[in-house]
């Protein structure tokens, strides 16, 4: 036990130590406050200069945002990812929605499908900065309800059907233009015809065409239907029908022979016989051979119907029909793999306007002896075995080529295919939508190209992505080409000469 003086001295020492601890704690807390303020300032500066960390991380990895599954909306998510990989479609939406920016009432923009779709596709293609790695596309379902489309997010739907809903709704939004092609809009049927050729055909300049015809979406194309009488070879007028996607049935497989995209395309345009069709030309011929003005019955013959592609779109959507029916009438899904390529040549499926006889004679007169087959220096020679017309020339099979070509990226090796050395209608694969499951339930996923770098926005990325709703990862081209495609999204590749002609047409 300490004496009284010693106790008082000890209490004083303790009080001095406590006071010293309070001062030390105050100094430490003050220093931490300064450090925390500096850290907050640095973090704010980094946010302003470089943006959100998640955005930098996603751009560094070359990925894109995913989409939230709202119940059973994988069909919508997969389609949006596929459309966002088509730069021509996004550019068209930008030009189409520019008309709404001039309107005074800005609050009604959210009621337009084109505006809502543009915001989603720009975000999915990393053209709009977003802090979220997963986006919510419920706004698209809401705006479609304004167009009287009741699409439930809890019921399984079809991605191809939604594609038709979007394209038809965009056409409804463009309701101020007529449904029939303008009589002087030759470019809508034959986009490759030059202004000089049009002037020669019409013997004068064309009247101005309304600007709203420029708002035709890039998936818009035209089919031609041609019918020829097998008896008199009379050809009926060509009929044009519009399409926004080519729905191809898969023909019956041949044992040991892989199924290719060309097989489906040839099956689509293959000719068919139509019996008991009234032929006006045969009726006229029959009437000329009968005297005394006797009436002649309409002559019914067999016609050959041929489909071709009259106008190929800038963006080509190909739908592979995988629905079949059993003998009992139950729906079945066809799971076989259809081979397709990174590049697609469509020249052989394009409808060509028949050349007039007089024009053909003038063209033949211009041909020299060097270009005449079977002659050499003006002397007839026997054609070699390779030149013998033993049958139709082997066409380039879209989807049937070596694995080394499938793995090649970048330019198209046209030298390997002499018959397609300079294709006019060359397309590049941009996205593939795949359906896993059966006809009653399943899941949609998408393979798509990664967006181009901001430094070179006009380039085409060779990096592929696999996307399943909110899950995004990198994929190889071999994985993409090995998938069982349901929807294929191609975009046309223009040569330098075609780019120049398009620029001149835009200036005119």
What can you see in these coordinates?
This protein is α+β, with helices and mostly antiparallel strands and 508 residues long. It has 14 helices and 18 strands. The strands form five sheets. Strands 5, 8, 11, 14, 15, 16, 17 and 18 form an eight-stranded mixed beta sheet that branches. A four-stranded antiparallel beta sheet has the order 4-3-7-6, covered by helices on one side. Helix 3 crosses helix 7 and helix 4 (87-101) crosses helix 5. The termini are far apart. The relative contact order is 0.12. Residues 47-56, 209-213, 366-396, 401-419 and 503-508 have low confidence and may be disordered.
Sequence-ordered SSE layout with sheet pairings:
Blueprint: H1 4-50, H2 53-61, E1 66-67, H3 74-83, H4 87-101, H5 113-124, E2 134-135, H6 138-146, H7 159-173, H8 195-202, E3 221-229, E4 239-243, E5 246-249, H9 261-269, E6 272-278, H10 280-288, E7 300-311, E8 315-321, E9 323-325, E10 331-333, E11 343-345, H11 357-366, E12 375-376, E13 379-380, H12 403-407, E14 426-437, E15 442-449, E16 464-468, E17 471-475, H13 477-481, E18 485-493, H14 496-507
Parallel strand pairs: 1-2, 5-8
Antiparallel strand pairs: 3-4, 3-7, 6-7, 8-18, 9-10, 11-14, 12-13, 14-15, 14-18, 15-16, 16-17
Helix pairs in contact: 3-7, 4-5
């Amino acid at each position: 036990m300490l004496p009284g003086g010693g106790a008082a001295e000890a209490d004083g020492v303790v009080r001095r130590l406590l006071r010293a601890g309070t001062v030390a704690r105050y100094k430490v807390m003050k220093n931490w406050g300064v450090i925390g303020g500096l850290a907050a300032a640095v973090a704010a500066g980094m946010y302003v200069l470089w943006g959100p960390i998640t955005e930098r991380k996603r751009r560094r990895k070359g990925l894109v945002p995913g989409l939230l599954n709202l119940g059973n909306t994988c069909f919508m998510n997969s389609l949006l990812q596929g459309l966002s990989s088509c730069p021509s479609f996004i550019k068209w939406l930008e030009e189409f929605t520019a008309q709404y920016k001039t309107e005074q009432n800005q609050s009604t923009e959210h009621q337009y499908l084109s505006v809502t779709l543009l915001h989603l596709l720009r975000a999915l293609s990393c053209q709009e900065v977003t802090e979220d790695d997963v986006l919510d596309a419920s706004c698209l379902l809401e705006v479609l309800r304004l167009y009287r489309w009741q699409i439930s997010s809890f019921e399984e739907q079809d991605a191809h059907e939604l594609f038709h809903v979007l394209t038809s709704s965009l056409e409804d939004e463009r309701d101020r233009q007529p449904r029939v092609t303008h009589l002087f809009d030759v470019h809508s049927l034959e986009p490759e015809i030059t202004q000089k050729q049009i002037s020669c055909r019409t013997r004068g300049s064309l009247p101005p065409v309304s600007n709203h015809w420029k708002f035709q979406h890039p998936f818009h194309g035209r089919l031609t239907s041609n019918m020829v009488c097998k008896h008199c070879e009379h050809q009926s007028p060509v009929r044009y029908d519009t399409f926004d996607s080519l729905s191809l049935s898969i023909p019956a497989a041949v044992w040991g022979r892989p199924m290719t995209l060309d097989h489906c395309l040839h099956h689509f345009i293959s000719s068919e016989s139509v019996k008991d069709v009234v032929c006006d030309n045969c009726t006229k011929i029959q009437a000329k051979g009968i005297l005394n003005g006797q009436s002649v019955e309409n002559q019914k013959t067999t016609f050959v119907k041929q489909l071709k592609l009259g106008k190929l779109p800038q963006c080509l959507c190909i739908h592979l029909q995988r629905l079949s029916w059993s003998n009992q009438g139950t729906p079945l899904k066809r799971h076989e793999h259809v081979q397709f390529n990174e590049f697609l040549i469509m020249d052989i499926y394009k409808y060509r306007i028949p050349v007039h006889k007089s024009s053909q004679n003038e063209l033949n007169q211009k041909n020299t002896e060097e270009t005449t087959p079977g002659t050499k220096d003006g002397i007839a020679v026997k054609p070699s075995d390779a030149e013998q017309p033993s049958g139709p020339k082997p066409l380039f099979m879209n989807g049937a080529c070596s694995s080394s070509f499938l793995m090649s990226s970048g330019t198209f090796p046209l030298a390997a295919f002499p018959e397609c050395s300079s294709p006019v209608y060359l397309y590049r694969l941009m996205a593939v939508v795949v359906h896993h499951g059966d006809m009653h339930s399943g899941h949609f996923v998408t393979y798509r190209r990664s967006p181009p770098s901001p430094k070179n926005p006009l380039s085409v990325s060779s990096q592929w992505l696999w996307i399943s709703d909110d899950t995004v990862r990198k994929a190889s081209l071999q994985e993409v080409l090995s998938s069982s495609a349901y929807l294929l999204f191609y975009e046309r590749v223009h040569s330098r000469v075609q780019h120049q002609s398009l620029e001149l047409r835009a200036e005119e």
